[in-house]
Amino acid sequence: MAIQSSLGTETIAASSTNETIDVQKDLAMLDASKLRINLADRLKPVPTPENVVFGKHMSDHMLVATYDPSSGWSEPEIKPYGPLLLDPTSSCFHYSTSLFEGMKAYSGPDGESRLFRPELNMARMVRSAERVALPPFDPNELLKLIKRLVQIESRWIPQESGYSLYIRPTIIGTRPYIGMGASDYATLFVVCCPAGLYFRRGAKMLSLMTLGAHVRAWPGGTGGHKISANYAATFLPQQVAAERGYDQVLWLLGDRITEAGAMNFFVVRKRSDGDLDLITAPLDGTVLPGVTRDSVLSLAGAHGHGITLPNLPPSLKIHVQECTFTTSDLSQWAEDGTLIEAFSAGTAVVIVSIGRIGLEGETDIILPKQESGMGPVAEAMCGMITAIQEGREQWSGWSVLCD
Ligand SMILES: *Cc1c(COP(=O)(O)O)cnc(C)c1O
């Protein structure tokens, strides 16, 4: 597995400057072989699947490593879950020097724990750390540590299909100095909790609302990175949408559609030749490069060539269109009857179908109603991705064992 790391260049840069050479060459790298494990004396009760509330029941243990500019990364430790003790001047509290990832562990039919394309999360996390000027780390070492944590917490992975263990790797800037500047101290931690269906599905499809006055991301900004600073400002618009009776915000940049809530957004359009177009915004820096997004696009391209998505005719061609599209396009496509589905994708939800899109809360675009609560393409994608995640279907080495 090859993961891009900025560590290599860091070492070269350090050894080519004379003054700092002695300090920098002793900086320890994040090293999974140095892991210390301190297990909890008393284990918590694991909630039964029907009692799983997302994010509420944290597992018994967490992984922690700290970075100090004089010594580098500490020995990583898996220890009982609990509070962190932080100086009130810590950089993350004032300047949002923090970032996170969201990934899941699944239990396969063989009882083995597995991760889904975790190298993509690790590579994205390296880029996030770089973007907010936090210390670099070796993504391969972090992945080894996460696999070890998942093994230790395997009793927390619900066995039922559709359930998983949500994993939240995080890095916060802990420089204890209120002066403004990059944080050269950091704490990396990974915590886990069981996850079921994020939005209670069934008959209900999600509703979205555009709020042109609030922009999530902009050209030259940080929208393409999973850094904490991107999220604080989204909660007020989210509350506005909720007050107007919509589930999530459909984020715009001018009249261009970018994402929905903290999920990537797709529409399905019927073409005159009978094929389908699967349309999503391009990765131009204003859209988060989702692992689920990439998986949906790959599966669409592979349908009928080596893989058949559930309940779709193998002869059906799905053309992937990563292109700019606007609210006027959506209205036009709804009017001419070619807009047949819209859905959102992300690790937490996997896939969720959209039933209604309120343009500034004034006119509603209504998507075709679906008995199952999901459009055929959304349902096919959800079925295939879940099957690969749970190890029931093999595809391109996307499911990775935690051994
Ligand atoms: C995390 C996230 C996504 C989804 O990414 P996945 O890797 O599929 O979980 C999409 N949009 C935003 C803004 C996100 O934060």
The CATH architecture category of the largest domain equals Alpha-Beta Barrel
> Stretches where pLDDT falls below 50 for ≥5 residues?
4-21
Largest sheet: 10 strands, mixed
Number of domains: 2
H/E element sequence: HHEEEEHEEEHHEEEHHEEEEHEHEEEHE
CATH superfamily (homologous) name of the largest domain: D-amino Acid Aminotransferase, subunit A, domain 2
CATH-defined fold name of the largest domain:
D-amino Acid Aminotransferase, Chain A, domain 2
Number of helices: 10
Average predicted local confidence, pLDDT: 93
Global morphology: globular
Number of DSSP-assigned strands: 19
Strand content range: 25-35%
Organism: Hermanssonia centrifuga
Protein name: Branched-chain-amino-acid aminotransferase
Catalytic activity: L-leucine + 2-oxoglutarate = 4-methyl-2-oxopentanoate + L-glutamate; L-valine + 2-oxoglutarate = 3-methyl-2-oxobutanoate + L-glutamate; L-isoleucine + 2-oxoglutarate = (S)-3-methyl-2-oxopentanoate + L-glutamate
Keywords: Amino-acid biosynthesis, Aminotransferase, Branched-chain amino acid biosynthesis, Pyridoxal phosphate, Transferase
